[in-house]
Amino acid sequence: MLGINWSDVMNVVMSVLPQLIVIGVVLVLAIIVTVAVNKKTVADTATRKLIHSESWLVFLVAAVVSVSMMLFGPLATLLNSATATKYTLSEETISNASDLAKEIQSEAVTLLQNTDDNLPLADTNVNVFGWASTNPVYGGTGSGSMNANYETTSILQGMAEAGLTTNEELSKLYTDYRADRPVVAMAEQDWTLPEVPAADYSQELIDSAKEFSDEAVIVIGRVGGEGADLPKNMKGEGITYNNNSTEYEDFEDGESFLELSKTEEDMIKLVTSNFDKVTLIYNGANIFELGFVEDYPQIKSVLWCPPAGQTGFSALGDILAGTTNPSGKTSDTFVYDLTQQPSYNN
Questions:
Q1: pLDDT tens across 318-344, in order?
Q2: Counting Cβ atoms within 10 Å, is residue 178 exposed (0-12), middle (13-18) or buried (19+)?
């Protein structure tokens, strides 16, 4: 479900900005006239009162006209929506909507690769790697953003609903690292990609994960939406990004948002060096450079899971468990190098 955010508020203010400017200008002029016309400048009391009253009368007329223009102009639709009769959705409607959202997502998830029939997962115990597994991408920005007032089903919850048990010790590593996702919205963009550096995975944690299961899932997430283009150069001017380590840069000059960061690449190397059956989940709306998959034969399966909304990740759990067949189709080509695409260079 969608909700009003700060970008919406700014859009409303900007729509009535001309009227607000008129009110402000006339108010300032009325104050100036009131202060300037005094006993020293105009001796006659009646004349002073007449000028004062007329100046404030002009302000009152200007304010009334401006407010009327706002109410019957830019704010009309907003006020109609605010004053309209409100209805509450029934539990049945909510349930049906959730089921429909899950069905739509099950038809949107695309199986890009499945070597050796790796999927569905053979083991119900699963190690889920990647910070995005604990904070996935639910929606876009602006009108496609999510409202925090409504509960969402996460990737891990969707897997649990499908009967899969995930490694809680791994998940805790990610939530302890960072609990919130950097804000990418219409009004502001922080393109930081939180990811635990490979050096922070203890050998004890890796050994424990291998004992827990021989199945590994990696989640890589990317946010995108209206209001701002995805960075073509992560070192470009005006790009906000905080590295995950002080010992290296996540991106070199010229590398884009739709490539792996060094921290993500190091994490994939760590996982593939310890697990032979790896499933990669790309959670994002935009095509992503996936050429690196060929460098890791341990990555048997690749799933493209678009932003899932409130309940869509339940479908992802069913797909991993094998109760639902992913029937999505690619709407675009996942290229090895985005810079070689004609659309990239337009």
A1: 999 999 998 888 887 888 888 888 877
A2: middle
Residue 128's nearest CA partner among 192, 223, 212, 243 is 212
Structure tokens at 4: 């009003």
Give the three-state DSSP class for 77. Answer: helix
Average pLDDT across the chain, whole number: 91
What would the two tokens of residue 163 be? 């009967």
| pLDDT, position 2 | 47
Report d(CA 136, CA 315) in Å as an integer: 14
Cβ(16)–Cβ(194) under 8 Å?
A: no
Q: What is the dihedral sign for C-alpha 132, 172, 183, 149?
A: positive
| Contact assessment for residue 270 and residue 201, using Cβ atoms and an 8 Å cutoff | yes
Percentage helix, strand, coil for the chain under 3-state DSSP, each rounded to 5: 45, 10, 45
346 vs 342: CA distance, rounded Å: 6
* Least confident among 162-176, 179-193, 243-257: 179-193
Token pair in block for residue 60 = 């009152």
What is the per-residue pLDDT for 114?
97
Residue type, position 112, single letter: L
Single out the residue of 301, 316, 284 nearest to residue 115, CA to CA: 301
The residue count of the chain comes to 346
- Name the β-bridge partners of 128: 217
Global model pTM greater than 0.90: no
**Which is it for strands 299-304 and 110-114: parallel, antiparallel or unpaired?**
antiparallel
Distance of CA 177 to the CA centre of its chain: 19
Of 303, 307, 304, 287, the C-alpha closest to 101 is: 307
| Long-range contacts (CB closer than 8 Å, 24 or more residues apart) made by 51-56 | 55/29, 55/30, 56/30
176 has pLDDT over 90: yes
DSSP states of 278-321 as a string? Answer: EEEEEEESS----GGGGG-TTEEEEEE----TTTTHHHHHHHHH
